[in-house]
Specification:
Elements: H1 3-63, H2 68-77, E1 85-90, E2 96-99, H3 112-120, E3 123-129, E4 135-142, E5 152-158, H4 160-210, H5 226-275, H6 280-312, E6 320-322, H7 324-341, E7 345-348, E8 357-359, H8 361-377, E9 384-393, E10 396-403, H9 433-443, E11 447-453, E12 457-465
Parallel strand pairs: 7-9
Antiparallel strand pairs: 1-2, 1-5, 3-4, 4-5, 6-8, 9-10, 10-12, 11-12
This protein binds adenosine-5'-diphosphate (ADP).
Length: 478
């Protein structure tokens, strides 16, 4: 079953269903109220009329029982409300003797009101369909002369008009009820669909992402609501996933390439040496190349291992009070020869002393090596790499490595600290050196910032906090 059906159903049952039920109960209650109001009004009216009549009859009977029957007769004949209701007198046999309508009515129109009145000896009331099929309201009262010619007096009125009025109201209420429900249903369905459709689109798109296809994006219809925001986030996520997928692929290919180059050199020289065991010069040269390339391979593997430790959260530091200048000096020394070979000038005006920091000296040296290596690697012959180390303020040391190399484009600059990101594919490298360096500096409570101008050069500034206490002039912890 699809999600759309579930949400729609849930809305139908939980929301619309409740409204339908509550509204139905309200309509029912109002209908009952209207019916009761009109019915009791009619009953009240006819009962009041009858009370007036019985009051007069009682008076007649008390004044002169002998002329009682003729009084009733004339009363019925002169009945002024004949257009609204019919007044009739019934004999002790239960037959209508005389009626204000003047017609000779057969006895079968007598209804329950009469029988009730006879039974309880005073009065009876009836509301319902007469034998003729017409709706009537009737009241019968036994006269004081119960054994006389007119034993009971009956008032009958048609209830059809009242019934029609009540029915009209109830039908109107029902129509309003149906209209409200229809309106709610259609507006609700429109609203539910406005949620369900984008959600369906999102889930279909997410399924494609799950299968590794990051090319699709969600088309937004409504920009301003929460769903629009969700679409933006998912589209952004897809951009990120696509980029990291691309970086992963780039990384795989650059690492394979990086591994292949030294391996080819090692294999080539190994073959040459074994083919010419007598050629001492070739052996010395070959062994040198094999050594350098093996060194390069092992550095790369170390870098990859560091990276994997960072990813697994297993990257730890061996911190102690340390002299940052010693490590920086070492790193500069390592590259002096290489820079000379590539005709790149390294300018390093080493300061006499800087405050100590609390850190891992091997890792810090690794950071400097990486940054200086990049500065040389991305510079051309004749370039210059300038290294400076200063105390920037009361609490920090700043190390800046600037080069006059190819620089980094403004689009690439924010991403180069990201793992696997390579802005320049013309030079060797796995794209994780800066990510590792940044992580190490961050773990020391410092920052690694990169400023660059394409074609002009790059400056990397590492800021590290000075160790606050626990230091003396010899750099020993107190
Ligand atoms: P890589 O092994 O590719 O050098 P890094 O993580 O050290 O990886 O650097 C990431 C990317 O940043 C490089 O591919 C390069 O494009 C850019 N980069 C780093 N340092 C410099 C620099 N000094 N000059 C120009 N580009 C640089």
């Amino acid at each position: 079953m699809s999600r759309k059906v579930t949400i729609t159903k849930r809305w139908l049952v939980n929301s619309l269903g409740v409204v339908i039920l509550v509204l139905f109960l309200v309509v029912l209650a109002v209908s009952v109220f209207i019916n009761t109001y009109y019915t009791s009004g009619a009953r009240q009216y006819i009962t009041n009329k009858m009370n007036t009549i019985t009051g007069i009859l009682q008076q007649y009977y008390t004044d002169s029982p002998v002329t009682f029957a003729s009084e009733i007769h004339s009363m019925i004949e002169n009945w002024s409300d004949r257009d609204k209701m019919e007044l009739m007198a019934i004999n002790s046999e239960g037959e209508i003797e005389i009626t204000s309508s003047g017609f000779n009515i057969s006895s079968d129109i007598i209804a329950d009101d009469y029988y009730d009145a006879v039974e309880n000896g005073s009065s009876g009331y009836f509301l319902g369909k007469a034998d003729s099929g017409e709706r009537i309201i009737a009241v019968t009262v036994m006269t004081p002369d119960k054994t006389g010619k007119y034993s009971a007096i009956r008032l009958v009125s048609s209830f059809e008009n009242v019934h029609k009025t009540v029915r009209g109201y109830i039908i109107a209420l029902g129509a309003v009820y149906v209209a409200i429900i229809a309106l709610m249903f259609f507006s609700g369905m429109y609203f539910v669909n406005s949620i369900v459709r984008p959600v369906q689109q999102i889930s279909q798109t997410a399924k494609r992402y799950a299968h590794g296809d990051f090319s699709v994006r969600i088309l937004k219809k409504n920009n301003n609501d929460e769903l629009g925001e969700l679409c933006d986030i998912i589209n952004h996520m897809a951009d990120e996933l696509a980029m990291s997928e691309k970086m992963k692929n780039d990384f795989m290919s650059s690492v394979s390439h990086e591994l292949r180059t030294p391996l080819t050199a090692i294999k080539g020289w190994a073959e040459t040496i074994s083919a010419m065991p007598e050629d001492k010069e070739a052996i010395v040269k070959g062994m040198k190349v094999i050594n350098t390339e093996a060194e390069r391979l092992s550095q790369m593997v170390e870098e990859l291992l560091d990276f994997s430790r960072i990813q697994n959260g297993k990257f730890t530091l061996n911190k102690a009070t340390m002299d940052i200048l010693a490590e920086l000096g070492d790193a500069v020394l390592i590259y002096t020869e290489k820079a000379k070979r590539e005709n790149i000038e390294i300018v390093y005006d080493e300061p006499d002393m800087l405050p100590f920091i609390y850190g891992d000296k091997n890792r810090m040296r690794q950071v400097f090596i990486n940054i200086i290596d990049n500065a040389i690697k991305y510079s051309d012959k004749g370039g210059m790499v300038t290294i400076q180390a200063v105390q920037s303020d009361q609490g920090h040391i700043e190390i800046a490595v600037s080069d006059t190399g190819c620089g980094i484009s403004p689009q690439d600059l924010p991403k180069i600290k990201t793992k696997f990101y390579k802005a320049n594919h013309t030079r060797r490298g796995s794209g994780i050196g800066l990510a590792v360096a940044d992580e190490i500096v961050t773990m020391h409570g410092g920052t690694l910032e990169i400023f660059s101008e394409e074609g002009k050069g790059t400056t990397v500034i590492i800021t590290l906090p000075i160790q606050k206490q626990k230091q003396n002039k010899q750099g020993e912890s107190i």
